[in-house]
Amino acid sequence: MEQKDVTEQEQETVDEVEVKQEESTETTEEVIEEVEVGTNNQDEITKLQQEKDELYERLLRLQAEFDNFKKRSVKEREAERKYKAMDLASELLPAIDNFERALQVEETEANKGLLEGISMVYRQLLDGLKSQGVEVIEAVGKEFDPNVHQAVMQVEDENAESNVVVEELQKGYMIKDRVIRPAMVKVNK
User: Coiled coil where (predicted)?
Assistant: First the structure.
């Protein structure tokens, strides 16, 4: 019986060794899997980090573009407000020119009241345009400036300096710092 007990003990020992070997093999496989998973996780982490960096840079670019858009919109609105009367003034200038021509008529007893009425309307138009920033360009006696004057004739006048406006044929107007219509002038040679 003792031999049987010994063989049973040996068998149990062999079984225990086999179980330990199996556990050891399973543990080794788990460690190998963990290393492989760790490597795969590291690759995924690196990939996700790159993706996050790309998205962050894209977000920064979009924010910068939006800020530029806001600034550009503000500038456009300011320019629009600044020059809002420009189109209206351009439309009214021919009427103002006609009022000026009407006021050049010689005053008589018959047309005195009519000329006073035309003069009042003319002044009101000019005051309204002036309140919107529209101003008459000074020309006569000033040096010729191609930015605000349009030379249509040259004359020789010994009493005036060279390149100076001697006569204004049509008034010019500007709004703030923009020319609506340049003054038509005669310039001394």
Answer: 45-72
Residue 87: CATH number of its domain: 2.30.22.10
Three-class secondary structure of residue 128 per DSSP: helix
Q: What are phi and psi of 154, to 5 degrees?
A: -120, 135
Q: Which residues have C-beta within 8 Å of that of residue 29, sequence separation ≥ 6?
A: none
- 35, two tokens: 């290393």
CA atoms within 13 A on the CB side of 53: 6
Write the CA distances from 24 to 14, 16, 19, 28, integer angstroms.
15, 12, 8, 6
Q: Are 143 and 182 in contact (CB under 8 A)?
A: no
* DSSP label at residue 139: -
pLDDT digits (tens, 9 = 90+) for 40-85: 788 888 899 999 999 999 999 999 999 999 999 998 888 877 778 7
Q: Which two tokens stand for residue 170?
A: 């049509």
Tracing tokens 């019986």 back to the chain, one arrives at: 1
End residue of a domain, out of 55, 82, 109: 82
Residue pair 93/180 in contact (Cβ under 8 Å)? The answer is: yes
